[in-house]
Amino acid sequence: MIKYGIKLWTINKTWFKEAVNLFQKKQVDFIELYVVPNYCQKDDLKIFQKAEISIHAPHFTHSFDIFQLDAEKEALFKSQIIKIADFLNSKYIILHAGTGSNPNIFRKNFKKIYDKRILIENLPKVGLDDRICFGYSLEQLNFIKSQCKADICLDISHAIKSAISQKINYKNFLKSLILKLKPNYFHLCDGKLNNEKDKHFNLGEGDFDLKWIKEILINLSLKKDIFLVFETPKCNNNLKNDIKNINYFKNL
Asked: Residue ranges of the alpha helices (H) in 6-149?
């Protein structure tokens, strides 16, 4: 089956109760919680013990990049990300592949923070700040899975943007990633096919072939549970737009 999830950050305290209510009413199946460093008091997060939670580690937006791992960032990862995942009984920890090109640096640094719950999220080739990302190609992602022993969180928009950068057919690329990497955890939003920069659109506002994507995920879900997080915009200071996007996808 497909399990439908929404995403919050630890700074979105005003939405915590609403998100847990959506879980309890079975309008969502889980919540992915992005941890903003040093903004994650246990008392605030206690409410999420009533829901199924995945943890998303910080990325370079909050100065965390596995390619720039030093003792301070290693300590932060272990003292905040791992401990919050333990506290909320999280099955998964999502971690961006970072910005770099040397796979050996990735492997060396990943060993320092390794946890069996970590899923490495694929990235577009070109980041928002024009830096080249790691984990954008099938070769790099296969290295992460086979040599670093980490499964993949497949961000569909990132993969499509990577295909645009590589000048290859995005549907063939997605099929190859799914066939070779066998992911069961996905991120989804809509986007435009005329540029390689990742932007999070509501479903139906871009030109991704969402019906085709849904068919692929439905077929996968017949064999195993699929976790699908909607990374669509927040509107009007509530989570109604998240549910609107989930319903849009369900009704395709």
From this structure: 16-24, 42-45, 71-76, 83-87, 103-113, 138-147
| Range 197-216 average pLDDT | 96
Largest Cα span, the chain: 48
d(CA 15, CA 65): 27
What domains does the chain contain, in order, with CATH numbers?
Answer: 2-250 (3.20.20.150)
Give 151-203 pLDDT, tens digit per residue.
999 999 999 999 999 999 999 999 999 999 999 999 999 999 999 999 999 99
Half-sphere exposure of 49 (CA within 13 A, CB side): 9
Cα dist from 232 to 4, 7, 19, 128, 214, whole Å: 13, 9, 15, 17, 16
What pLDDT is stored for residue 111 in this prediction? 98
What CA–CA distances, in Å, run from 71 to 79, 143, 216? 12, 25, 41
CA angle 90, 123, 94 (to 5 degrees): 5
H-helix or E-strand spanning residue 30 = strand 30-34
Gap between the Cα atoms of 43 and 16, Å rounded:
12
For residue 52, the model assigns a pLDDT of: 98
